Amino acid sequence: IIFSPTIKTDSNYLGYILNSSSSMDQKSSSAQGDSVVHISVDSIRNIQIPLPDFLEQQAIADALTKVDNLITSLTKVIEKKKLIKKGAMQKLLSGEMRLDGFEGEWIKIKLGDISSIKTGSRNVEEHSANGKYPFFVRSKEVMKINTFSYDEEAILVPGEGGIGEIFHYVNGKFDVHQRVYKISDFNDKVNALFIYWYMIIFFGEYAKENTVKATVDSLR
Fold first, then answer.
1. Which residues face 183 on adjacent strands?
2. Among 26, 158, 159, 161, which is least packed by CB within 10 angstroms?
3. What are phi and psi of 7, to 5 degrees?
């Protein structure tokens, strides 16, 4: 749908106002359809927007554009710092860079030799929006549930979908979906948070090499 103003209007202001919560709410209330949601031109025409004089429109649009530009600049700085952090994490978690006061060789050991790994038993349908406990499913979102099966320290990773990209750490009461792996019962010489950060950095490549290719990639 193309908007062609019939009166003198600042196009940037119009863009911002049409993306405001008020305009969005009006569009949502006029939307129709189930599988594909759509909105008619007539519904768009009936959206009511506040319209100050042209100079004030320009001033508002300029102010919001400056905010957008600032956010973009900050986002770039944040992304740069994230890359710096990731580089430092890779060196620290691989032993390439050592903290002061620590030396000696690191040992290599299988994850299964220092922890217990098994799947949960719950289905997504068992979640409750107002549940008391975290419910770990196959997504970055942590749902809620009214019961808990575990009360411990654990790392959770999906067994299919988002493999090597989704990691959760928990210490307390929680429940787990049947296609999510619970890594817990760590050896007393193991720090679970160290394993958690190590997996975030290095587990992805291993997972890609060992996934079972099907409709949805899965990890045994």
1. 117, 155
2. 161
3. -130, 170
Buried (b) or exposed (e) across 5-36, using 16+ Cβ within 10 A?
eeeeebebbbebbbeeeebeebeeeeeeeeee
CB 183 within 8 A of CB 198: no
The angle at the Cα of 146, spanning 142 to 147, to the nearest 5 degrees, equals 100
**Which residues, 6 or more positions from 209, have their beta carbon under 8 angstroms from its beta carbon?**
none
Let me know how long the chain is: 220
Contact 195, 183 (CB under 8 A): yes
Structure letter (DSSP) for residue 179: T
Q: Which two tokens stand for residue 201?
A: 């950095």
pLDDT in tens, the chain (220 residues): 888 888 899 999 999 999 999 898 888 888 887 667 788 888 888 999 999 999 999 999 999 999 999 999 999 999 999 889 889 999 999 999 999 999 899 999 999 999 999 999 999 999 998 899 999 998 999 999 999 999 999 999 998 877 888 999 999 999 999 999 999 999 988 999 999 999 999 988 887 787 776 666 777 7
- Give the neighbor-by-neighbor strand order of the sheet with 180-184: 116-119, 180-184, 150-158, 168-176, 133-136, 142-145
In 17-62, DSSP assigns E strands to: none
Residues 168 and 136 sit within 8 Å (Cβ to Cβ): yes
- 170 forms beta bridges with 154
Type of residue found at 219: L
